[in-house]
Recover the amino acids of this structure.
């Protein structure tokens, strides 16, 4: 019944982390990495792509990785691959992390940052201008049934507007949707003044 001097003493130890993984790749196309539970190697974890505390998307980490298998990481079925959401391609800097769902565990190398531009959804050409007509075509790849409105600009001055909805066989043959993307309108009288004018075509409502 003899109790040693200095008894009792107090100790607090963190539970061993049963999770492991890495946030390996982040670019404007893809997010990649891996995650597993060491105590339950046959279990598939779900990982969350986070910005701050906001969950952007969740996916299972169940892709087979030969490199993981070869280095002794369980079955190797622990990889994940996420297509970067388009909402993050807004020319803003985003700080992103990968968390194991249902835990507070962030994968190694979280967080990471990137800045991506939105890929242009428009295509078109200012084909020509003379003292009679202004010609060209334009379309929205994301909405091929929509007819866009174009503006004739000189500097910041809008001289005219037109709807680009004329059928162009060459555009249809080249694989541009319905082909109904041409514009052809008269040069405004105000520009017929014997002076040189530098003109551009802009898609209305955009830059």
């Amino acid at each position: 019944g003899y109790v040693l001097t200095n008894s009792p003493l107090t100790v607090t130890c963190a539970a061993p982390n049963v999770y492991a993984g890495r946030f390996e790749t982040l670019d404007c196309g893809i997010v990649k990495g891996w995650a597993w539970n060491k105590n339950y190697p046959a279990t598939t974890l779900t990982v969350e792509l986070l910005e701050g505390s906001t969950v952007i998307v969740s996916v299972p980490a169940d892709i087979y990785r030969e490199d993981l298998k070869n280095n002794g990481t369980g079955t190797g079925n622990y990889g994940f691959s996420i297509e970067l959401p388009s909402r993050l391609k807004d020319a803003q800097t985003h700080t992103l992390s990968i968390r194991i769902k249902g835990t507070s565990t962030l994968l190694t190398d979280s967080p990471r940052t990137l800045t991506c531009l939105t890929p242009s959804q428009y295509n078109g050409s200012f084909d020509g201008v003379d003292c009679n007509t202004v010609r060209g075509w334009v379309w929205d790849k994301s909405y091929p049934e929509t007819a866009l409105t174009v503006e004739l600009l000189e500097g910041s001055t809008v001289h005219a507007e037109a709807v680009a909805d004329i059928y162009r066989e060459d555009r249809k043959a080249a694989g541009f949707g319905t082909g109904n993307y041409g514009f052809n309108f008269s040069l405004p009288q105000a520009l017929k003044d014997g002076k040189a004018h530098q003109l551009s075509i802009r898609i209305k409502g955009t830059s």
About this structure: The helical segments are 66-70, 169-173. The radius of gyration is 30 Å. The mean pLDDT is 92.
